[in-house]
């Protein structure tokens, strides 16, 4: 099934602007439901900028309305995201996004220092001079540069960024980072389900005992055990 070009940003927009269930959003965006919960609770590692799938022609308002009326309805994408094939040479960046480049470069330098200037240049479509100026904080506009995820800014794709991180990690002989942001939530959910299951079993046993008129079970303490 085709997925939105920017699934996390799209999920953020759907959470904020529709009454679709987390399951519907997770299914449409190809994400785990706990990731949708994290986005809704603002516990994701990076605050996402929502991406409107209607304006991106990936989803229609009719589809959203069908989903809001029926929580079991599976949203259908209008079209798959256009796959942009890279060619050799500098990456073209729309004029409207060029002002975001320094923010994207700063984010990569801060979060993935193992990525080389050449890789950053290929990802963002900028010069090594600009990257060096941001890295050593001599850029003319350094006071106004705020690190922001280049994928969310639309400067590169998650697949290309992940590939660059993996390649850089391998070159430096370090293990590629693994996203563990949701492990705590997943473990907490498992513990909660276990507790609910155990409580249900205890309630069922108690109800059965009362129904049969059985005597209350004897609870042995350390004192009673040593008397025998």
List keywords for this structure.
228 residues, mainly alpha
Molecular structure report:
The N and C termini lie far apart (68 Å). Mean pLDDT is 77; it is low at 80-88 and 218-228. The longest helix is centred in the last third of the chain and has 30 residues, at 183-212. This protein has helices at residues 7-17, 22-29, 33-40, 61-69, 95-98, 101-111, 117-124, 128-135, 158-171, 183-212, 222-227. Helix 2 crosses helix 3 (33-40). The protein is 51% helix and 0% strand. The chain has 228 residues and is mainly α. The chain is built from eleven helices and no strands.
Blueprint (SSEs and pairs):
Blueprint (H helix, E strand, L loop, with lengths): L6 H11 L4 H8 L3 H8 L20 H9 L25 H4 L2 H11 L5 H8 L3 H8 L22 H14 L11 H30 L9 H6 L1
Helix pairs in contact: 1-2, 2-3, 6-8
Task: Note the gap between the termini.
Answer: 68 Å
Q: Count of helices?
A: 11
Strand content: under 5%
Q: What is the H-and-E element order? A: HHHHHHHHHHH
Rg, Å, rounded: 26 Å
Can you count the beta strands?
Answer: 0
- Integer average pLDDT: 77
Task: Choose one word for the global shape.
Answer: extended
Q: Which residues form runs of ≥5 with pLDDT under 50?
A: 80-88, 218-228
Biggest sheet details:
none
Give a brief outline of the structure.
The chain is mainly alpha-helical and 228 residues long. It has helices spanning 7-17, 22-29, 33-40, 61-69, 95-98, 101-111, 117-124, 128-135, 158-171, 183-212, 222-227.
